[in-house]
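User: Could you write out the 3D structure of this protein bound to uridine-5'-diphosphate? I've included everything you need below.
Assistant: Certainly. Input first, then the structure.
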Amino acid sequence: MKYDYLIVGAGLYGAVFAERMASKGRKVLVIDRRKHIAGNIYSENMEGIEVHKYGPHIFHTDKEDVWAYVNRFANFNHFTYCPVANYKGELYHLPFNMDTFHAMWGVNTPEEAEKKLAEQRAEYADIEPGNLEEQALKLVGRDIYEKLIKGYTKKQWGRPCAELPAFIIKRLPVRLTFDNNYFNHPHQGIPTGGYTAMVERMLDGVEVKLEEDYLSERKMYDGMAETVIYTGQIDEYYGYRFGALQYRSLRFETEVLDTPNFQGVAGMNYTDEETPYTRIVEHKHFEFGKGNPDKTVITREYSQTWEQGMEAYYPVNDEENAKVFQEYRALADQEQHVRFGGRLGTYRYMDMDQVIKEALEDTVL
Ligand code: UDP
């Protein structure tokens, strides 16, 4: 065999896997059906601004080994994600914190905020939440639910909150401090020079072939390597034989504007139901205004139901899909020649640090 590993997919999992194995002297080939490396963390320079082509990615982690690892391939700036919610022109800081409560209710101290929250939560205090709506009402009450959660979540998942599982919202923190940092992790930032450059460095010295479609010439590719690492959709790999798994997909509208500063923040969530997009991202703010000083690049993000031929972004982790996934998983567990990795290969929503962690663990020899 020519290669030890054929890695299908040049995204983050594939790149880390390739880097680790190549460093241990293994022969590795990475292929990807797209025209570029880096999967969905791919970024492209427009007007001197790194544009996150498949949605904004903010690196954050509490895993020291992962942080040390990524710092070998990029310098990270001190960006912290502090998105703003726009509800019909009213602006609120996220995640839910003292700034949010002040704007919503005019409260000035944690004690006042606690009191107001207690009032708001009373309606659902004794109810064991059976869905996202009830979970949200129990967690933050009616006002915040109506203005900041209901519309956004419905747009994001394409279903009303009462038909969504409660756990989606559990990870949204509620803070009694004036702290708008969206993430709780000790390390956070954006790689200076962009994500694509970071992945390029990971793949330095590794053989990479783009616009190569494994599934259309599976036999040929299988003959090339001892082991295939497959990072695409697991249901597609198995020809959808147990049915297609559901995903949410995204559509992006990117525009260059002749203005130095459009919204003053990297991410603004449109939390009402009527605005068709979920958020607008202004890319220059990830790098503190770097790039053309007279222009800015913004992206409107629309959530949509995934259909074959679209890019899959978010797995829909409800019971129905979990069942179907288990059937694919059972097949995967019996494979001798192929292993599955990454978000699409394992059908899980994962942050970047978790993807890297798993690739590091999967490459321990
Ligand atoms: N969410 C919301 N309003 C917001 C931001 C998030 O209601 O302005 C809810 C929504 O249900 C979303 C969930 O919180 O699906 C998780 O949000 P997060 O930003 O973590 O989602 P990501 O886009 O990173 O998956």
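The pocket of uridine-5'-diphosphate is lined by residues 85, 94, 148-149, 152-153, 156, 168-169, 171-172, 269, 271 (CB under 6 Å).
User: Perfect, thank you.
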